[in-house]
Write a structure and sequence with these properties.
The protein contains eight helices and six strands, in the order ββαβαααααββααβ. The chain has about 230 residues and is of the alpha+beta class. It has two domains: about 140 residues, no CATH class; about 60 residues. The chain has a three-stranded antiparallel β-sheet with strand order 1-2-3. It has a three-stranded antiparallel β-sheet with strand order 4-5-6. A hairpin with a 3-residue loop joins β4 and β5.
Length: about 230
Amino acid sequence: MTLRTGKGYRYYTCAGRAQKGPTRCGGCTVSMPKLDHAVIDTLSERIFASDRLANLVSAYLDKAKADAQQQRSQLGQIKADLTETDGAIKRLLRMVEDGLMEVDDPALRERMTALKAKRKTLTAQLDQASALQPTNRPQLTEAKLQRLSETVRATLHKAQPDLRKAYIKLFVDKVVVSKQAIELTGPKSLLVRAALADLPNTPNEVITFVREWRPQGDSNPCYRRERAVS
């Protein structure tokens, strides 16, 4: 969307519609204060109300727990395969030591080359899987969620405009507006991380927070909440 101004008022409209007319886009035009207030109210009441926030985070944590269990299982399998491969290499070497195979035997060379390549691949997989394992993560508590709820809601309603806008950009990836409703989309993982961290107090600190915390991927990434535009 793009911002346009009229006589004494400001409003958002679809950029394609504004530039190329209604045949380009059937989107609507919405008063800037009206949409801004709707976004703030939706975030405050439908995302950061303490009970709703707990439900959103709970669903994300359940999925994260299942993913972590799967990762641990995969890690265990990789370790088992690596142990088996090391054992196979040692058995071949023992056969050479016992005179059961010649050092220059082509079959020995082929088998040893294959096993060493497999060990190299498994070692790389082990390093990657180990890096994904959680290490001493702080626990998410009801008190921390309550603090996040109170902090964000107070900021959205009482802080200076620049900080309010920075918070909206922090937690909302996309706002979709139709004639009936608005839809907000954002990452659930950021809600968890924000609850575990000290939230920033200035717009510049919000930018730093995003750079440090914004997730690169998320198996259950988004919350969505709609509110009718009246």
